[in-house]
Structures are given as C-alpha cells and as structure tokens.
Amino acid sequence: MTYLLGTDEAGYGPKLGPLVIAASLWQVPDWFRNADWYHQLGDLVTRQAARSQTLLPVPLADSKTLYQSGGGLARLESGLFPAMLAAGLNVDRWNDAWTAIAPHCANELLSLPWYRQFDVTLPVDADPQLLQQRGRAFRLGLDQRGIRLVSIRARVVVATRFNQLVDRWGGKGTLLSHETLQLIRDLVSPLDAESVLVCCDKHGGRDRYGALLQHHFPEQRLEICREGRALSIYRLGPPAGGIELRFAAKGETFLPSALASMVAKYLRELAMMAFNQFWLQHVPGLKPTAGYPADARRFFQEIDAARQRLMIPEHQVWRTR
Q1: How confident is the model at residue 192 (pLDDT cuts 50, 70, 90)?
Q2: Which CATH number describes the domain made up of 2-271?
Q3: % of the chain beyond a pLDDT of 70
Q4: Which class for 207: exposed (0-12), middle (13-18), buried (19 or more C-beta within 10 A)?
Q5: Where do the structural domains in the chain lie, given as residue ranges?
Q6: Are 26 and 5 spatial neighbours (Cβ–Cβ below 8 Å)?
Q7: Per residue, what are the HEC states of 140-183?
Q8: Cβ-count burial of 250 within 10 angstroms (0-12 exposed, 13-18 middle, 19+ buried)?
Q9: Contact (CB, 8 A) for 19 and 156
Q10: Distance (Å, rounded) from C-alpha 268 to C-alpha 255?
C-alpha cells in the first residue's frame, strides 16, 4: 500500500482573514500511485458540481471550480462533507470544524473576538441528510477499491501570527512553504510506510525547496531529483521507497490536492463569515468583504473607528503582506 498526500491553500492573497493550508491523506494500492484518479474512479468522483439528489459521483475538484463568491457554500459542501464522513469526521457545528480539522490552531483562532462567540450549524447551505447518504455511498465505494481516506487536516495562520512569520522568514511565500511543510511532517511522521507520495502546488513561484526540506526533515537523507518551473521533485529517506515530494504548477489537478483546496477554501469562508458578522454588529450597514487588497482597504477604513473603540490592535486585523 502507498500513502498519497495532497496540499493546497486559501487566503494567500488577501489582507484580511486567515491563511488556511489544508491537506488530505489517502492510502491506496501500490498500482494507484500514478493513476488518473478521475478516470479510475469515474463512478465515485467528478470535477463537476453534484447533480441534485444524486449520491454519486461526489464532486471533488479545485475549489475555484466549485465555488464562486456570493454563490453560497452548497457546491463545496456537496463534496466536502461526504469526504469528511469517509475520513471519520462528523462535523455539524462551526466550532467543530476547527477543532476537528485544525486542532493545533483552533485555540488561537477561537480566542479572537470575531470568532469567540460565533457558531452556526453545518452544513450552511446543503442538505445534511443527503450529504450523510452520499458520504456512506462514497465510503463504501472507496472500501470496495481498497482505498482509504485517512485524514483531512489544516493549519490556520491568523493575522497576528502571519505578520510575525512574515518578519521571521522575510516574505509570505517562504511563510507558506514552512507552514505547508510543517503540516506535511505532522501527517507523514506517524506513518509506518515504505512509500509516501506528496503533491503540492508551487509556493509563490518558488522552484527550489531543498533547504526548506532539510529544515523540516533534518534527520532524512535528501535527494534532489528535479528542479524546474513546471515541476520540482525530491526524495527523503532511502533510495528505494521513502517520501517523494512533488511541487507542481497547478498541483490541485491531483485529486488529494483538489480536496485540500476545497477544505482550505471552506474553512476560509467560514472564518470570513464570522469576521464580517462581528464587524457588522459594530458598524451598522457595513458591506462584507472577502479580504482581497482593494476592498480590504475600504473595509479596514470603515471599521477603524470601531476597532480603536474596542481596543483591538491593528496587527490582529490587518496583514502586512
């Protein structure tokens, strides 16, 4: 058996709200290592939005395919919740999502004033009964093929820590690499496996990751297999087996990374839901924001008087990069 792990992020570009880095870890038969998931599992998964009331296939695709701003969360939830159920996660409250998926970051996140008192039932927009049925059908289909969705995890970097890490590492691209590799290490370290394949999107256009890998895996032998604009490949551990890491442009076309993309986007949208509601309570009539630079400046100016009145430090709200 082989372990396959895919990562992706949401919130890299905005100036407001958290950066969320997510990963999905799968165990598959060895022959599946380089398979075309969407071809081999065509009856189980699709890149398209779910058809109404159908159980299969489950939509697992790059979040940009399934989510558009202002369009609600149902299309993301239609695939994400069955996947979470297949991974043994039964999340039905806003707070549960953070503690189940980002346990190492949940306390820091939930201590912030806009998250502290917020809670809603999940899923937000999709039919929970249908998602339960879809999740059972999906898990059964995976079991029949000898495939297991082992884990769904995320790291959440709120504004204060984001700013601290930018200062420490000298840029947000390096910050993204360090946080992603820490998430990968957390997931692969407990595995007793001869073969692990990790696929990530490129980080801020970076082509070379050797020094970063040595930083996070100092005990492992590192082999640089390839470094280029389209793809960089590394091996950790013994020449045969061990961990292979691929950093590829548009890495979310790999299904485990596509699911990670959905997780990261969903958690980011849940965070912004709470953030916008908090500030609307203190600034009546305030237009919500997605946090991207131009609109973030407008939003920050409109909440600034309330922020100062509430004695909330600027660094808790505004990201420097």
Answers
A1: confident
A2: 3.30.420.10
A3: 100
A4: middle
A5: 2-271
A6: yes
A7: HHHHHCCCEEEEEEEEEECHHHHHHHHHHHCCHHHHHHHHHHHH
A8: exposed
A9: yes
A10: 20
